[in-house]
């Protein structure tokens, strides 16, 4: 059997391999290696937001709320009930997916597009407020601390490098899963609703049901990313549910490229590294990100990853057609054409 | 035994009834024409039957069960499939993917199969690809299989729409002005396709504005004007019906 690897996987795989090698040589101290963990966690969050933006063609302003919710669920289970983070990694997406199902059911039965964005914004602000005010459960503004790291056979995955490779493996698994989900009956159903909802219904796609399920799936995935965050950085607070992270995920998706799988991975790396580079500017960072976002949307609306893909493809085609031209020239030379 | 029946079907928009107490009865295996001047309520009637809008009053029965107010995708599952007046495709997808996405109801693959690329999944995918090719050959688009839908000509658009609808394996197909925008040859080709469908056992309800086109192909014709049925019968009866002529051409002064 011939193994056919789609061109995106070559590019993305290469990228990831490079990223995987980087910590050994470039990111040599603990702090810098922490950034790598952040890249992976934001990449998973970005992929989940892109499931809503790229696959469903919708937008949720409440996505960070599900991220923070997942983080709280797993942290809370570990702190209050002593439940292993491994269970938390399953419980967080389950809980976020369940709440996503409820919110999706309420919102998607009636709304699409801008209205959906507003409904989810309302939900996000509500969730953030609850996290802030419900002190006995959420710890109020200061949140919860001392969240334990996961451990494997008695060995705590505590070092930045170990957690990075652990999370990277999961990220790869998620990209793989998402790429295959696209050609499943469910994935095609979702895509057809995105393309044309009326037509999708006419051929039997239960549009609202599929969208609610897809939304819930994206919420589960981002909840998982949140749990990964909680057990590495070892704290949770209400900001995790807020608009700061919402904008980060949005930047990750838009800069990387919507609907491309590897786009959010690249977008996340760009975001984390650039924001680290701009760290000295403190509060002005987001001003610069605003400008960057504006420039990307105006001048590279497809995002960086698809732009790279296109460049590679067109240079390959140019080389190919160049080869053909040369070959043709040689043929002609051999035949003695044009050499009078 | 009628496959589709409406009784007293009414839809009000504001104070205006777009469809007014429509009684329609389509027998299995028919090609029924639904005609009328612009704004006579043909498309609204079709939207009511296929669940895209809810009736104000009245009942739709399909295969003897009351389906009034059912969702479009539920009706598609029962074999009642429609096309749209304005060409409606998955514009950004290839011709192949258009039909593949139209095959939702006939897609036997499981989620686990798709995720693991199991042998069964690959087998089923091959069968689906085969069916897509058959359908495209049937509508005459076999050679355009890799084209992106939005690059097709007006005629090819219409043929692809039919292929998408057929991918859902309809028992009854409702076509909303499928010949609009086609030249006479393309329209004739399309009508031939429809005739072939009938011979394969598909019942057709054909909404059309162009009377000449429809008289050739329909077994019976129903005429609407201002939302109400004004005539029904064989093409010959309809062509000679004075009410129909008045509706289409207006009253001759002094006649």
Essential attributes:
heterodimer, A: 340 residues, mainly alpha, two-stranded antiparallel sheet, two-stranded antiparallel ribbon, 4 strands, 75% helix, 2% strand, B: 255 residues, alpha/beta, Rossmann fold, 2 domains, six-stranded mixed beta sheet, four-stranded antiparallel beta sheet, 10 helices, 38% helix
Textual characterization of the structure:
The complex is a heterodimer of chains A (340) and B (255). Chain A has helices spanning 7-25, 30-55, 63-81, 85-108, 113-133, 135-138, 160-181, 185-195, 197-202, 207-233, 243-256, 262-277, 285-299, 304-335; strands at residues 144-145, 151-152, 155-156, 235-236. With 340 residues, chain A is mostly helical. Chain A has a domain at 29-240. In chain A, strand 2 and strand 3 (155-156) form a beta hairpin. The longest helix of chain A is centred in the C-terminal third of the chain and has 32 residues, at 304-335. The radius of gyration of chain A is 23 Å and the shape is globular. Chain B is of the alpha/beta class and 255 residues long. Chain B folds into two domains: 1-79 and 170-255, P-loop containing nucleotide triphosphate hydrolases (Rossmann fold, 3-Layer(aba) Sandwich); 89-169, no CATH class. Helices cover 38% and strands 25% of the residues of chain B. Chain B has helices at residues 42-49, 72-77, 95-102, 111-116, 119-139, 154-167, 184-199, 211-215, 235-239, 242-249; strands at residues 2-13, 16-27, 31-35, 57-62, 65-66, 80-82, 172-176, 203-208, 220-225, 228-233. In chain B, the strands form two sheets. Chain B has a six-stranded mixed beta sheet with strand order 6-7-8-3-9-10, with helices on both faces. In chain B, helix 3 (95-102) runs parallel beside helix 6 and helix 5 (119-139) packs across helix 6 (154-167). Classes of the chains: A mainly alpha (340), B alpha/beta (255).
């Amino acid at each position: 059997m011939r193994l056919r690897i789609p061109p995106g996987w070559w590019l993305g795989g290469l990228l990831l391999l490079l990223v995987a090698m980087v910590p050994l040589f470039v990111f040599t101290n603990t702090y810098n290696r922490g950034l790598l963990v952040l890249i992976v966690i934001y990449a998973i969050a970005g992929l989940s937001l892109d499931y809503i933006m790229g696959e469903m063609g919708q937008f949720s302003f409440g996505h960070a709320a599900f991220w923070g919710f997942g983080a709280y669920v797993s942290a809370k289970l570990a702190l209050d009930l002593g439940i292993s983070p491994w269970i938390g990694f399953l419980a967080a997406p389950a809980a976020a997916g369940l709440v996503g199902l409820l919110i999706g059911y309420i919102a998607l039965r009636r709304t699409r597009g801008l209205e959906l964005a507003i409904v989810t914004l309302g939900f996000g602000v509500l969730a953030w407020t609850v996290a802030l005010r419900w002190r006995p459960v959420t710890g109020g503004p200061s949140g919860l601390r001392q969240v334990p790291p996961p451990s494997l056979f008695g060995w705590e995955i505590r070092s930045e490098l170990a957690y990075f490779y652990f999370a990277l493996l999961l990220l790869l698994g998620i990209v793989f899963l998402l790429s295959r989900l696209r050609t499943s009956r469910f994935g095609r159903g979702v895509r057809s609703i995105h393309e044309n909802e009326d037509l999708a219904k006419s051929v039997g796609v239960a549009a609202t049901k599929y969208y609610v399920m897809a939304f819930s799936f994206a919420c589960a995935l981002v909840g998982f990313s949140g749990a990964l965050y909680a057990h590495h950085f070892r704290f949770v607070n209400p900001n995790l549910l807020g608009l700061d992270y919402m904008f980060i995920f949005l930047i990750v998706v838009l800069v990387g490229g919507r609907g491309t799988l590897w786009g959010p991975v690249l977008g996340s790396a760009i975001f984390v590294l650039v924001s680290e580079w701009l760290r000295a500017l403190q509060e002005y960072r987001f001003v610069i990100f605003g400008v960057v976002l504006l420039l990307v949307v105006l001048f590279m609306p497809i995002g960086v990853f698809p732009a790279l893909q296109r460049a590679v493809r067109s240079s390959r085609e140019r080389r190919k057609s160049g080869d053909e031209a040369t070959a043709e020239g040689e043929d002609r030379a051999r035949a003695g054409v044009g050499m009078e | 035994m009628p496959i589709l029946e409406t009784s007293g079907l009414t839809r009000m928009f504001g104070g205006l009834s777009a469809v007014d107490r429509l009684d329609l009865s389509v027998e299995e295996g028919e090609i029924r024409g639904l005609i009328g001047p612009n704004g006579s309520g043909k498309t609204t009637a079709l939207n009511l039957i296929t669940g895209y809008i809810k009736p104000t009053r009245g009942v739709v029965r399909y295969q003897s069960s009351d389906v009034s107010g059912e969702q479009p995708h539920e009706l598609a599952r029962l074999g009642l499939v429609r096309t749209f007046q304005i060409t409606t495709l998955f514009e950004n997808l290839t011709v192949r993917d258009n039909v593949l996405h139209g095959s939702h109801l006939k897609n036997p693959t499981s989620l686990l199969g798709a995720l693991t690329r199991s042998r069964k999944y690959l087998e089923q995918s091959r069968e689906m690809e085969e069916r897509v090719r058959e359908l495209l050959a049937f509508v005459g688009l076999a050679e355009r299989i890799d084209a992106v839908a939005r690059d097709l000509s007006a005629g090819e658009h219409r043929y692809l729409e039919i292929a998408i609808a057929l991918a859902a394996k309809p028992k009854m197909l409702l076509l909303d002005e499928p010949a609009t925008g086609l030249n006479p040859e393309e329209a004739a080709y399309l009508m031939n396709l429809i005739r072939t469908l009938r011979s394969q056992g598909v019942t057709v309800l054909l909404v059309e504005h162009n009377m000449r086109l429809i008289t050739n192909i329909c077994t019976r014709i129903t005429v609407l004007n201002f939302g109400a049925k004004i005539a029904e019968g064989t093409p010959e009866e309809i062509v000679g019906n004075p009410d129909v002529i008045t509706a289409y051409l207006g009253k001759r002064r002094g006649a």
